Amino acid sequence: MAEAYGDPNAKWKTLHNNQARKVHEDAAGQGVKTALKVEKKGKIVAKVFRFNPTRDAKPRYDVYEVPAEEPMTILTMLKYIRTRLDSTLAFRDYICYKGICANCMVRFNGKPVRACSTRVNPGEEVTVEPLAQHPVIRDLVVDFGSTTQGDEASYILRRGVFVDIVKAGKG
């Protein structure tokens, strides 16, 4: 019904609610929202980059187990982690609702992808990191307004911040 009124979130809400409902129903079918203990094929193991430059001396990776009976997007997985497992996780949500704005871009198993449209399958072990060549603001959030080059790159490397640096050409 929300789609009939032009709600741009309707499709995501339906997908998210269906995934949440399937993942969190208890065995008795009471609809109680409790985390299930699942076997490996019923979960996604996510290794997520964590770093807060104002507080942390160096970056780290935290590992989360996300219950999953069917494929889900990286963004849905990250939202599950933030709402159910670790409220301190920072990442950019999407703003276009169409998978074209690139606001939700992350590195997924080493490759840049849109978190809102890239799917993760149950049983997978995945790594989610911030985009390369952009300074990390916090966790998976990067500064899209600048790239890491020259003296700034050297400064970041000296501080031990995990950022992929691409050598800038001189000239």
What does this structure look like?
The protein has three helices and nine strands, in the order αβββαββββββα. With 171 residues, it is α+β, with helices and mostly antiparallel strands. The chain has a domain at 40-158: Roll (Ubiquitin-like (UB roll)), CATH 3.10.20.30.
Broad structural category: alpha+beta
Distance between the termini: 57 Å
Catalogue the unreliable spans. 1-5, 7-13, 15-39, 148-171
Task: Give helix % range.
Answer: 10-25%
CATH class descriptor of the domain at 40-158: Alpha Beta
Descriptive terms for the model:
five-stranded mixed sheet, two-stranded antiparallel ribbon, single chain, alpha+beta, Ubiquitin-like (UB roll), 171 residues, 9 strands, 21% helix, disordered N terminus
What is the structure about, briefly put?
With 171 residues, this protein is of the alpha+beta class. The protein has helices at 10-24, 74-85, 150-158; strands at 43-50, 60-67, 72-73, 105-108, 111-114, 119-120, 125-129, 136-138, 141-142.
SSE arrangement:
Elements: H1 10-24, E1 43-50, E2 60-67, E3 72-73, H2 74-85, E4 105-108, E5 111-114, E6 119-120, E7 125-129, E8 136-138, E9 141-142, H3 150-158
